[in-house]
Each structure stands twice: as structure tokens, then as C-alpha cells.
């Protein structure tokens, strides 16, 4: 049941993306339809996660659905859409979904339809049997999602900084000042969450392996990522006079570090290779 709902949510996100793309030019009714479609996908996505959680208990191996690559991708996509909605609702920004939806769609499509993906509900290995699992993973992935949103807005800011308003045929959402402020807020929120994720992960590591830090590939990349975002936030607080270009470029570099942190457990051997 959960796989059906999650697969359906994938296609709904794609439909919502197409509608959102059209709404950038036309607005009006199609914008409302796009928003409702994206929300419907999110509801199905959320229901799929909850049902998967319930089904794990039915199998006698109950645990939060956050224990393998399939579940990580599904939750990552969910977190991206959740933060997209929160930012749109809290700030009054429109059309942010046109940036976030394709990201969620790609992650969900790969998780749901890749022939090499193990999507079954599996029992936890001993290292994962901890109450810290949900706290650590949720904090990290909400932080990742905030960094993704910041990177998407950074790409948009770079495009706006290079284009002449008189030649714009596509009305891109937001102005430079607004985008810079929202990028900074997303970075700051993501930084706090990611820091919490690293801290709780250290406590969890000590309980599981007897060491707070072991320079495992994932831990190393997490530290690099944290330092990159520390530098970005420090630079923002120190002041910028280039229209936000440096901050935007650094934010895109940070997203590359996030990708290495997220995928490093699969590319390199280490204590986290169970994913």
C-alpha cells in the first residue's frame, strides 16, 4: 500500500511541476490548480510514509521509515516539499514550487522505480536500534532540505543578476533583495538543524560504537559541509556588496558537499555503509 501511494505521489509531483511551470507565465487559475495538485501529492506522500511506518509494526520490526537509501530519499523529498510550502506560506512568495517540485520528483522517481533500489521494509541492524535514529536523521534531512531550497533560490538569484529586465520573457519569482534574504534565512535554519543532526549523531555513535567521532567518510564530509556553511553565513554577516553573487555561488558549492555527505555512505566503505 505504501509503495502505491508513494509511486502515485511521484507522478502527481511531476504534474504539479508542469502546471507550476505554466503558471509562471500565466498565473491566475492555473496557479491555484498547480498549488492544489502539489498539495495533493504531498498528502499522498505523507500518507505513504505513515502507512509504511505502520506496516513495519505489522511485520514485527516496527521502526521509523528512515533506515535505508529508499526511505532516506523518500523522506528527503518530503522534507524539500514541506519546507517549500512553509516558505511560500510564511513569506508570501509564489512559484517557489516550480524549483522544488522537480527535485522532489527526481528523488521520488529514483527511489520508486530504480531497478537497483531495495524498497522492502527491512529489520534494523543493531547499530540503528536507538531512540536517537529518528532525532538524528530528521534533523539532518530537514537541514539538507533547507540547503536545497537555498541552493535553488541561489541559482535563481544568479540568473536574475545576469539578465536584463527589459529582455526577460519569463517572469521569474522574487527580486534580488528578497531572494538574498530568503537564501540567508534558509541557510541559517538549515545550519541550525544540521548542527543539531551532527551533535545527536555523535551521541548516537558513542552509544553504538563507543566513540563520538571516528573520521568515517560520512562524518568527514559532514564536517566539511558544516565548515562550508559556516563560512557562507560568516561572509553574509560580514556584509556583501556584489548583489549576493558570492553567497549564491558558495551556497551551490555547499549543495555539492551535501550531495557527497548524503551519498558518501554508498560510495565509500565505513561505519555508515549500511545505507
Question: What key attributes describe this structure?
Answer:
8 helices, 275 residues
Tell me what you see in this structure:
It is a single chain. By secondary structure, the chain is an all-alpha fold. The protein is 75% helix and 0% strand. It is built from eight helices and no strands. The protein has helices spanning 2-26, 29-58, 69-91, 97-113, 132-162, 176-209, 217-238, 245-267. Helix 7 (217-238) runs antiparallel to helix 8. The longest helix has 34 residues, at 176-209. Residues 166-171 have low confidence and may be disordered.
Structure, briefly:
By secondary structure, this protein is mainly α. The chain has helices at residues 2-26, 29-58, 69-91, 97-113, 132-162, 176-209, 217-238, 245-267.
Amino acid at each position: 500500500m505504501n509503495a502505491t501511494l508513494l509511486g502515485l505521489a511521484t507522478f502527481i509531483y511531476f504534474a504539479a511541476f508542469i502546471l507550476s511551470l505554466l503558471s509562471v507565465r500565466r498565473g491566475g487559475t492555473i496557479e491555484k490548480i498547480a498549488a492544489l495538485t502539489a498539495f495533493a501529492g504531498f498528502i499522498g506522500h505523507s500518507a505513504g510514509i505513515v502507512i509504511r511506518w505502520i506496516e513495519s509494526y505489522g511485520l514485527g520490526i516496527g521502526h521509523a521509515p528512515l533506515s535505508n537509501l529508499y526511505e532516506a530519499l523518500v523522506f528527503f523529498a518530503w522534507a524539500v516539499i514541506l519546507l517549500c510550502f512553509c516558505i511560500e506560506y510564511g513569506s508570501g512568495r509564489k512559484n517557489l514550487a516550480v524549483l522544488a517540485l522537480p527535485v522532489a520528483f527526481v528523488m521520488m522517481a529514483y527511489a520508486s522505480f530504480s531497478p537497483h533500489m531495495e524498497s522492502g521494509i527491512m529489520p534494523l541492524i543493531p547499530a540503528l536500534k536507538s531512540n536517537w535514529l529518528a532525532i538524528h536523521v530528521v534533523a539532518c534531512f530537514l537541514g539538507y532540505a533547507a540547503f536545497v531550497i537555498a541552493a535553488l533560490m541561489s541559482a535563481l538569484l544568479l540568473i536574475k543578476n545576469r539578465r536584463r529586465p527589459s529582455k526577460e520573457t519569463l517572469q521569474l519569482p522574487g527580486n534580488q533583495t528578497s531572494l538574498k534574504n530568503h537564501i540567508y534565512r534558509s541557510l541559517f535554519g538549515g545550519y541550525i538543524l544540521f548542527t543539531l543532526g551532527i551533535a545527536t549523531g555523535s551521541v548516537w555513535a558513542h552509544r553504538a560504537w563507543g566513540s563520538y567521532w571516528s573520521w568515517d567518510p560520512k562524518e568527514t564530509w559532514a564536517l566539511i559541509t558544516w565548515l562550508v556553511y559556516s563560512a557562507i553565513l560568516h561572509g553574509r554577516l560580514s556584509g556583501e556588496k556584489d548583489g549576493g553573487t558570492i553567497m549564491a555561488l558558495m551556497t551551490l558549492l555547499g549543495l555539492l558537499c551535501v550531495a557527497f555527505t548524503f551519498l558518501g555512505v554508498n560510495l565509500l566503505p565505513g561505519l555508515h555503509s549500511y545505507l
